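ugh finaly. both done.
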Amino acid sequence: MTRYQYERGPLERELRKLFGERQIGDAHCRLCIPAFDGFTEVHIFKTPHHPDFKLDWREEMVTAALATSAAPTFFSVYRNGERRFADGGVWANNPVMVALVDALSCHDLNRRQVQILSLGCGESEMLISDDQVRLGGLWHWKEVISSAMRLASQNALGQAGLLIGRDQLVRIDAPLMPDNPIELDDYYRAKQVLLPLAAPLASTFDEVVSQRFFAVPVDPYEAFHGSRAG
């Protein structure tokens, strides 16, 4: 209750095996990775796919991964030099608008040219209880953070759909779980429950995803800074 649950070391070692010392600027696809700056500001790690994006390309991929995954209560705040980072899900649990705003601001696009594939991670049913209505109070609203994150996700999807057209947004998510939600760190139950839920979703969306998002290979983006800059 008074201390984070897990040490970061094992996660960092696995990330280091995967990414080594590669920098964000080495990525071949455009990236926008949300985090929460310890000075109470949002931060988005970005590849140098625009001339103005000069700050993050030198950062190691491991740094961005540890910053965006520093989920409060599970891990301590991630320290990178003098900076402190927490999980980007605190403010961008569904980053669909982060990506859309970046695309529209960095490129001369008509909104209807944009298509979005959004992947959810499942949700539990959210209902306001009688005690919350009658009594209020911190105890009865102790799960309000989860509710706020879910509502923020719904709002982001709604905004994106209004901007580009709902038919331009493909959202794939598991059915609502009415009770006993899977805890974020319950890997074993997630594997048992989510894999069977994924099979029918893959079958339902296979054709539309293949045709709209994976039919044509995409060339690496033009980098304006770093080792890949022309």
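ok and the 2nd:
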Amino acid sequence: MACIAIPTKNKKEVFFEAKGALLALLKLLKISYFIDTKLPAKEYAHPLKHLAVKSENQTIAEIFSVHPDVLKKYEINGEVGVIDIDFEIMTKLIKNVSVHYAQLPKFPESSIDISVVVPYHTLVAEIEKTIQSVDNTLISHIELFDIFTGGQIDEGKKALAFRITLRALDRTLKDEETTSVQHKIFEALKRKGGEIRGLK
């Protein structure tokens, strides 16, 4: 087992930085995975920033932010993120890895930020799959960058904020193309029971 703790005083979300780093590694190693957020509460883990990355019914890693009460107790300023990796399981899941080269993108990317309200126990992976299915050609990356509860969010629900990167290999995307993909994403999420925040 290995743990990495990263204290920070800046505005970057360490939890999502850690998640992105691990998923990038799994993609490189060609390990298929799914994300499980239905985890038992742990007194040292932030209740909204705690997930497990699993494959073939095995837990590869847990990622969490340290609970604010723990940080306060030990007088730690800033957020602390932890990646707890089971390297024994991960190495057993590694398939034949070969190196592939791709041409560097010639055209700029566009990005869309959306926030969708879903039932609290909805898996992030389910929402990401729904978004990706809208356009596998233009959607090149999906990043979860925040989770909201309370306030204007109804009890039993959470708001997930995503940054979606669009890119075409052969051209610069027009505004109307980006807008079209955005509307299709909205419709796909609404069909799944999601509520788009800020959409009237």
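summary for the 2nd one i guess: The chain has two domains: 2-93, 110-196.
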